[in-house]
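queue> pop job 88
queue> type: inverse folding (structure -> sequence)
queue> payload:
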């Protein structure tokens, strides 16, 4: 097993000496106070009155996305933040898939396009691609979203 103590940097090329100040800054931004004398972290939760209304108030006009929107709003109102995180990720994944279905449709001129379909759907496993794969494909195909032009198919 490789050890970063001797190298003074991690797998991503970030130097260890910068971790501590970066960590302190991230903790500060998250509202976490460091109590040095007690050697503990303190997180003061937001007051209840700051969470007014729905987190996502507008409907999507898509039954699945609207269902997830309701679930997300309920999770946040009940302070189930871990559940809200997973629901939000699934919503983002679904929105990206919907984007692929429009920009890279599986039917082009009423003909099946395996090239387009395989960008967002894994036929071998009969499932949609994961969010990380979808985002990588979006990054690679960014030119297909140029302003004022039709998507390349």
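queue> result:
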């Amino acid at each position: 097993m490789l050890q970063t103590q001797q190298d003074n940097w991690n797998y991503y090329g970030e130097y260890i000496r910068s971790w501590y100040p970066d960590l302190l800054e991230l903790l500060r931004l998250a509202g976490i106070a460091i109590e040095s004398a007690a050697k503990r972290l303190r997180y003061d939760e937001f007051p209840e009155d700051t969470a007014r209304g729905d987190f996502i108030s507008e409907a999507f006009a898509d039954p699945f996305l609207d269902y997830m929107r309701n679930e997300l709003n309920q999770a946040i109102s009940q302070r189930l933040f871990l559940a809200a995180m997973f629901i939000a990720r699934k919503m983002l994944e679904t929105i990206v898939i919907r984007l692929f279905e429009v920009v890279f449709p599986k039917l082009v001129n009423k003909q099946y396009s395996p090239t387009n379909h395989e960008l967002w759907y894994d036929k071998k496993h009969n499932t949609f691609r994961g969010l990380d794969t979808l985002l990588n494909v979006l990054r690679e195909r960014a030119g297909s979203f140029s302003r004022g032009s039709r998507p390349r198919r």
